[in-house]
Design goal:
Layout: E1 6-12, E2 25-30, H1 36-44, E3 62-67, E4 71-75, H2 86-102, E5 106-114, H3 121-132, E6 137-142, H4 149-163, E7 173-175, H5 184-198
Parallel strand pairs: 2-4, 2-5, 5-6, 6-7
Antiparallel strand pairs: 1-3, 3-4
Length: 206
């Protein structure tokens, strides 16, 4: 898939404020500081479509971007560590879970995982939650350029082995580097494949 156009649609503080269901949506989420904004900019070929920051927890709204006039990329707030009060953190969690569980136009969620680290409890718990609620998702390892090929392979295998203790099979896995544009073609191709497979959207909640 070629990204011919990418434009900001709106930011929403809750599900009810999101754009009316009209096209399929693909959400991106991960722990704070996982490199989500950089990955979104790399995928779309736009240097500042999503705002990057060295301060974790900057994304605090549900951000919709229209891609190629036929699907929406959704930038969700991170889960886990963020320099916000517990009350605000709980509000973020409710907003995220409400969107993931109830958004009719959500086709797939890409869960971003920093490949430099061992499997984190919050990442595993979040994916368990998606599985329990039968929300389709993929695993996206970020920052692959920060490791040697050997270390990269070892960390991926460790993650797979950890997941397979509780999962009968693993979801689709992508390995990415925003710096080297690794994984760009694979993720965009997957999005196109999913859209083709599920067909023209017919939403009850427009």
């Amino acid at each position: 898939m070629l990204v011919k156009s990418a434009s900001f649609v709106k930011s929403s503080s809750k599900l009810a404020e999101c754009p009316a269901n009209s096209v399929w949506e693909f959400a991106f989420i991960g722990r704070s500081n996982v490199g989500k904004s950089s990955l979104i900019n790399m995928l779309t070929g736009r240097k500042s479509l999503a705002k990057t920051s060295n301060t974790p927890g900057k994304t605090q709204l549900i951000n919709h971007f229209l891609i190629n006039e036929n699907w929406l990329l959704v930038d969700l707030p991170g889960y886990g560590f963020a320099k916000v009060a517990k009350k605000v953190r709980n509000k973020f969690d409710h907003m995220i879970h409400n969107y993931l569980a109830k958004r009719e136009s959500l086709a797939c969620t890409f869960v971003l995982l920093d490949i430099r680290h061992e499997p984190q409890h919050k990442d595993l718990a979040f994916m368990e939650l998606l599985g329990e609620k039968q929300i389709p998702f993929c695993m996206v390892f970020t920052k692959a350029d920060k490791l040697s090929d050997k270390k990269l392979s070892t960390n991926i295998e460790n993650y797979k082995n950890k997941m397979l203790k509780n999962w009968a099979y693993l979801p689709e896995i992508f390995v990415t580097s925003s710096a080297k544009k690794t994984g760009r073609a694979e993720i965009l191709s997957y999005v196109g494949q999913v859209i083709d497979d599920i067909g023209e959207p017919k939403f009850t909640n427009q």
